[in-house]
Every structure is written in C-alpha cells, then in structure tokens.
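Shipment paperwork, digital attachment
Item: protein structure file
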Amino acid sequence: CKCKQFVDAFLRCCLQHVPHPDQLQDLYEDISVGCETQKAREAFNRLKDELGLVVRAKESIIRALAIEHEDLRSIKNKFEVDQHAKVEHAVERSEVTASCELGSSGDAVETVAA
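Attachment content:
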C-alpha cells in the first residue's frame, strides 16, 4: 500500500529533524515548565500536610474513644441529618421575610413574602 509507505517516509523525515534528548536537556534550565507555579506547589504541599494531620487526629480520637466503625458511621449520619435540618430551618425562615415598600401614595407599606 503506497499510503503506508508515504506515512513511513513522512515520519522518517520528521524524526530526522527532531533534536536528540541530550540536546534538549538543558534547554529549559531556570525556566518553569508547566502550569503550576512554585507558589501553587508549596500551597498544595502545605494543604496536603494539614490534611494528613487532620486524618491522623481523627484516627487518634477513634482509637482513644474506642469507637467502632459502625458507631462512627451512625454518629456521622446523625451529624449530617442535624446539619441538613438546620439548613432547612434557615431556608424556611428566610422564605418568610418582611420588606418595606412604598405604596402608591408614597407611604411605607409592609409586605410579607411567603
């Protein structure tokens, strides 16, 4: 197939002009390559270290209190249910708000949105 021969010849031609890796090795010296800056890498590493501390603290608390995984799961579920209920209550309270508007006569009229 002449198509395959053409592609092979084209690749051979392209590869002849690609520099050897040794020639490219020092090309980007002192130039940051990639989208991450040093500052971003340092922040990532700091957060990763903090997360490790939190995980180890959680594990220590579980060991100290001798909490079984099932007990921990039920505590977590209860906490999530309580948080969800608090959010729902806050939303319900914010749906019934009083605002002050001007009526057609210019007087302040209190309206309640439900």
